[in-house]
Write a structure and sequence with these properties.
The chain has about 325 residues and is mainly beta. The chain has helices at about 5-25, 40, 145-150; strands at about 50-60, 70-80, 85-95, 100-110, 115, 120-135, 160-175, 180-185, 205-215, 225-235, 240-250, 255-260, 275-280, 285-295, 305-315. It is globular and about 70 Å long.
Length: about 325
């Protein structure tokens, strides 16, 4: 291998490692289909279903980079109509990099629904969880190992490779038949995720989301069978900002979606990704696939992101009228 090629490879690996580390330290796992994973978005969505819902998701981000990011989640929620309350359980697993830097969250969520005007409802929510972090230090590759080529490093291994901490989040959601908006605050306990003596406090994350149905069409005395919705999600975590905004078209059973993701234009000339979704939504069942086209400076090496969602929604008690939130299933 030529010296120039070696240097290019070293620079690429080093840059990739820095980017991966910076992303891990600054941001939580994210989902393109954020409304498919509603419990992860905000605890106010717990129980916002006909009565019971099971959701499973998988995301493979930056498949072109060794290690990449792999995120999986599973949730179950139940609505108690006699108490206008929803309960949920959310499990999330995130793995990143060749060092198998991993995080597992296990949490319980609660929300309460009450009416404020004739067509408007409010849902506050709470989420309590336990987070576990782990790393395989001896699978990591450091810069000095690449330079010397002898496989040894001067970096000290952590005192413990597995740590844990409690955390919490809260949110509020307001909605009508065609409009919804909400806000969530995550990491209220600001847990420490450091494997060493120095602290690495996770900063609080603020999320603002919402949207409205531009078009609602259906035949007389029959359910709405076609909608066009505009939706957005803005996140702020320390000095990191990100905006997701897009359109959904749903003509039963087909769902198509298109998003832009990036930092607001006044902070960056280029966004992070463009995403497209295709999904199928039938009675009590929906499945969706989305792909992120990276448009940042990493476009040639990341290979974007793949995401799959699966949802089962079923009702066992039909006596109580359900106030449905009009946001998309994906």
């Amino acid at each position: 291998m030529k010296a120039g090629t070696k240097i290019k490879k070293l620079v690429f690996l080093w840059t990739t490692g820095v980017l991966l580390t910076a992303s891990l330290m600054a941001q939580d796992p994210q989902f393109t289909q954020f409304f498919a994973n509603k419990l992860y978005l905000a605890p106010s969505f717990a129980g916002a279903t006909k009565q019971q819902r099971i959701v499973s998701m998988y995301r493979n981000q930056w498949a072109g980079i060794p290690g990449g990011f792999n995120t999986m989640s599973f949730s179950y929620e139940y609505f108690f109509p006699n108490f206008n309350s929803g309960l949920g359980v959310l499990v999330l697993r995130d793995m990143a990099g060749s060092g198998r830097l991993g995080m597992t969250n296990v949490g319980v969520l609660y929300s309460y629904d009450f009416q404020i005007f004739e067509e408007w409802h409010v849902r506050p929510g709470l989420h309590f969880l336990y987070s576990m972090y782990g790393i395989d230090f001896y699978r990591l590759r450091f810069y000095d190992q690449l330079v010397t080529g002898n496989g040894t490093t001067f970096e000290d291994p952590p005192a413990q490779e597995n740590i844990g901490a409690f955390d919490a989040s809260t949110s509020v959601l307001i909605y009508s038949k065609s409009v919804w908006a909400g806000a969530a605050v995550d990491h209220l306990f600001r847990p420490d995720q450091s494997f060493y003596a120095n602290k690495a406090i996770i900063p609080m994350k603020f999320s603002f989301f919402g949207g409205f149905q531009i078009i609602r069409q259906g035949k007389l005395l029959k359910p709405i069978d076609e909608t066009v919705s505009l939706a957005y999600l803005f996140r702020l975590q320390q000095n990191k900002k990100q905006l997701d905004i897009g359109l959904y078209w749903n003509k039963v059973p087909l769902v198509l979606g298109f998003w832009y993701r990036g930092i607001p234009p006044f902070n960056s000339e280029r966004g992070d990704a463009l995403a497209m979704l295709v999904g199928f939504k039938m009675k009590g069942f929906s499945i969706g696939y989305s792909y992120d086209f990276t448009i940042s400076n990493l476009v040639s090496s990341t290979h974007g992101a793949h995401e799959i969602s699966l949802s089962l929604d079923f009702q066992t008690n039909r006596k109580k009228k359900i106030h449905a939130i009009p946001c998309p299933e994906f």
